[in-house]
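During the reporting period the student researcher (J.K.) took over the structure-prediction task from the postdoctoral fellow and processed the backlog of single-chain submissions. One of the processed entries is reproduced below for the supervisory committee.
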Amino acid sequence: MERDVKLFSGTASRYLAENIAAAYEQPLGQVNVARFSDGEFSPSFDESVRGCDVFIIQSTFAPSDNLMELLLLIDAAKRASAHYITAVIPYFGFARSDRKDKPRVAIAAKLVANLLSAAGVTRIMTMDLHAPQIQGFFDIPVDHLEPSSLFVPYLESLKLKNFTIAAPDMGGVNRARGYAKYFNAEMVICDKQRKRANEIGSMTVIGEVEGRDIILVDDIVDTAGTLTTAADMLFDKGASSVRAVCTHPVLSGKAYERIMKSRLTELLVTDTIPLKQECPKIKIISTADLFARIIRRVYVYESISKLFLV
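J.K. obtained the following structure tokens:
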């Protein structure tokens, strides 16, 4: 007997879930979130999910209530006898804490993986993890979506001449190398030293940038300090233009102000996180069609790797 597919959304990602459902050509399922005066909440499904393949769409950006809501929805689906529960997490929060980089710190990404598994999820679908090895924190299937199929066509349409890919820090070298290999382009690295979290001490450029059109590639743009410092420095070194490709627009603190004041030509992001305000330098590319295609392929057990270019 063929199983029904049902798509549901948490509160934080409904704007994206509606577009995914439209691309999948199926309406979103009904979810109700009862809220109490003390701040607690209790989500529930307003329709049967018994025996269904359930896809729950929710990014886990701040506040942490978004993560808690996802956990409760997974638990509710499990207790309602859903056949298969996939957590579609466009932006996987807490991923930057993936190891002990100093004494007496938590490994938040591992803790979140444990919480999702304990809640009863049977599959994870996410995009551009801060560190790909986070997939190893799970003992269930993880579909790690690459945003290359979204960004590459746009970059090709620009028809830039002296095309050069740049990594904004040493941690982003592998990601940048993938784009450089695809475009058969040169690559440079911006080596930064931090004073503390969200504060850069110094930065230097490794590689030749004079007269070249630079594309900075990263997974997250948070305060935009690294990105704008790198862009300004690349211009000082003689770059013709500097664009940035960042999957997840966290954009906290003075990020919007920094982007507008910087010499960054353009910032290309996806809609895994909603923008807090409009910015003429920021271009958004939707992930909805890609997620819809992946959901369909996962349901019928087809390969998804051919959809990625880098």
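The committee noted the following: The chain has two domains: 5-146+288-307, 148-285.
J.K. will present the remaining backlog at the next meeting.
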